[in-house]
Amino acid sequence: MQKKFLKNLVFLLFLNLLVKPFWILGIDRTVQNMVGSREYGFYFAVFNFSYLFYIFLDLGITNFNNRNIARNHDQLKEHFGGMAVMKLLLGVVYGVLIFLVAWLIGYRGRQLYLLAWVGFNQFLLSFILYLRSNISGLLMFTVDSVLSVMDRILMIGMVGVLLWTGIFHGRFSIEWFVYAQTVAYLLTAAVAWVVLLKKSGKLTLRWDVDFFKLVLRRSFPFALLVLLMSFYSRMDSVMIERLLPVPVGDQQAGVYAQAFRLLDAAQNLAYLFAVLLLPLFSKMLKDKIPVDNLVRLAFSIMMTGVVIGAVTTHFFAKDLMQWMYPVRHGETAMAYQLRMEQSATIFRLLMWGFAGIASNYIFGTLLTANNNLRVLNGIALSGLIINFTLNFLLIPHYQAVGSAVATLVTQWGTAVLQLIFAFRLVRLNIRRDLWLRLFVLLAGTFLAGLLLQEAGILSWKMQLLLLPGVGLLMGVLMKTLDVKKFWLLVSEKTA
């Protein structure tokens, strides 16, 4: 299983590192710079509002299905038709719910129009993830990896044409960005559907009320977990926009989005670990195969990258923000510097909080595979209460920076709790020296960053390239990245 995880992780990371940085830095960033922070903040708040209710599109079906298919491959044909119909019905429920709540909290006119398209895109994305849960549950990780970047490749092509060919004479609206997402999701869903048809033969939709009740009852704990986690991880920009006066709310949501963009990219990479680990953990636990070595392998790889990334962004946060977001037309030098200082501070806080998020993708996934949903839901509820309370107290005084502090505290708090329960409930046996090695890596990389900045010989871009290299070298020396073990795993002939 370690070999399967490592080989597919390398391929999955390769595809995502090939495509998503260009999407984030070349497309998404350009869109924000072209439409402005206020306009993009408007979209970002609407998007995150729609995401708060994302669970009603899924109700835990995707995670339940992925775990179930990984354990019982033969149930794909039996369950697919009923679950696909359920997804369609949930799409209707979700649409009614988001419009009702949006109206009650004051959304009108253009906000509701954009919400309609963003909500439809959320439905398409949810359906794609359900289709992919079948594919990864069958351990077809290569196909799933390609599908994981297909929508972004399509959007790069479409939005790139709109941005850079001059077809619309430089006039670009945030709505075009959303329309391109719709087309990309539709095409990706069609391809995933065809893959499942070829793998399993005829797949027909099926109306079965008893089956619906059975699946909902079994998936409810998964649904509650995703709901709670969605609220405490995505409520930030919504609360910023709602708690601050117009137009400060939209502007601060835009500033938060500037820093959040790179965190979101990092989260997407970390999520790839969970995509691979959930079916592998599920099968190993069912077959009573020890998971200790796989947990250690995944955690050491993940946290090595997290430590290097957090330290690097700590030193170069402002440089990165200034490079990504130039002065806008009509913006004063003072206003620009304030925007960059805020974004840099938020970025540092979010990236240190990313350590907690990354840990959750390992230990939270393990607890999910072990069916410890009650524990995970208790932790997620605690995270929601902490995050809402801190946001409510800090945003009025510290604006978007206060929201970043709330995120940092929440993510670290939930990570510590998940770690404790993972060791207790799964009875992990992982040597304590790993924690010492990671601490030495953190201290050494931070010291290297200080020395580079104090020397002042190289440009910040050269330092930005050099510091991660130093961190990777230290990771190899400290064996948090065990190159010899990786090579043996990849090169061995047995599965």
What percent of the residues sit in helical stretches (DSSP H or I)?
over 70%
Q: How much of the polypeptide forms β-strand, as a percent range?
A: under 5%
- By DSSP, the count of extended strands is 0
Total individual domains: 1
> Rounded to an integer, what's the Rg over CA atoms?
22 Å
Outline? globular
Number of helices: 15
The average pLDDT value, as a whole number, equals: 85
User: How far apart lie the N and C ends?
Assistant: 7 Å
Biggest pleated-sheet summary = none
> What's the order of the H and E elements?
HHHHHHHHHHHHHHH
What structural class do helix, strand and pairing data support? mainly alpha
Query: What are the low-pLDDT stretches, counting only 5+ consecutive residues below 50?
Result: none
Descriptive overview:
This protein is mostly helical. It has one domain. It contains 15 helices and no strands. Helix 1 runs antiparallel to helix 9 and helix 9 packs parallel to helix 11. The longest helix has 53 residues. The protein starts with a helix and ends with a helix.
What can be said about this structure in brief?
This protein has 495 residues and is mostly helical. It is 84% helix and 0% strand.
Topology (SSEs and partners):
Blueprint (H helix, E strand, L loop, with lengths): L1 H34 L1 H16 L8 H11 L4 H29 L5 H28 L3 H24 L9 H27 L8 H35 L4 H39 L5 H33 L8 H37 L3 H53 L7 H23 L4 H18 L5 H9 L4
Helix pairs in contact: 1-2, 1-6, 1-9, 1-10, 2-5, 2-8, 2-9, 3-5, 3-9, 4-5, 5-7, 6-7, 8-9, 8-12, 9-11, 9-12, 10-11, 10-13, 10-14, 11-12, 13-14
